[in-house]
Amino acid sequence: MQIVIENCQDKFKIDSNIAKLIEKVAIECMKVDNKSLNYEVSVTFVDDEEIRALNKVYRNIDSSTDVLSFPMGEEDIFDVPYTPLLGDIVISAETAQRQAREFGHSVEREIAYLTAHSMFHLIGYDHINEGDKAIMREKEKLVMRNLGIFK
């Protein structure tokens, strides 16, 4: 498994502890969904201005958001003989900090949750309708409980 982390913002320090946390969350998401760990994911941290621009270009929504997921979308990605690129995760460090304050928990916990949320998008889950949303939320919560982040 390979996770490539790029920090393209200066609002929050992305240190080795954050990198290890992202790796743990990504691995646990794959285990919870019975997927191989033979994959690559890129995680990029940006500021609100950059995520707003990406959200406008890729989703036609002119506002910032907390996380964007860009799955590769290849058929049978889990059955290829090489390490496939599962997709890209883009997290707004600014929004993660703000949401952590609003919810009364740490930025690390918020980043862990955003990573889990985005990983399940990369795997193929969505939350457009309530049934799918409930399935995705339960998987996110299971990952967070398994890692001791949620009690």
N-C termini distance: 27 Å
| Total domain units | 1
Structural class: alpha/beta
Rg computed from alpha carbons, rounded to a whole number of angstroms: 15 Å
Assembly type of the chains comes to single chain
Q: Which second-level CATH architecture applies?
A: 3-Layer(aba) Sandwich
CATH class bucket? Alpha Beta
**Sequence of secondary-structure elements:** EHEHEEHHH
Shape: globular
* Residue share in β-strands: 15-25%
**Number of helices in the DSSP assignment:** 5
- The CATH topology corresponds to Collagenase (Catalytic Domain)
Mean of pLDDT: 91
- Which parts are unreliable, with pLDDT below 50 for 5 consecutive residues or more? none
Give a short overview:
49% of the residues lie in helices and 17% in strands. The protein has 5 helices and 4 strands, in the order βαβαββααα. α1 links the parallel β1 and β2 (40-46).
Would you give an account of this structure?
- With 151 residues, the chain is an alpha/beta fold.
- Helices cover 49% and strands 17% of the residues.
- The chain has a 4-stranded mixed sheet with strand order 1-2-4-3.
- Helix 1 links the parallel strand 1 and strand 2.
- 28% of the residues are buried.
- The model has no long low-confidence stretch (mean pLDDT 91).
List keywords for this structure.
5 helices, alpha/beta, four-stranded mixed beta sheet, Collagenase (Catalytic Domain), 151 residues
Write the layout of secondary structure elements.
Blueprint: E1 2-7, H1 16-32, E2 40-46, H2 48-59, E3 67-71, E4 85-92, H3 93-103, H4 107-123, H5 130-146
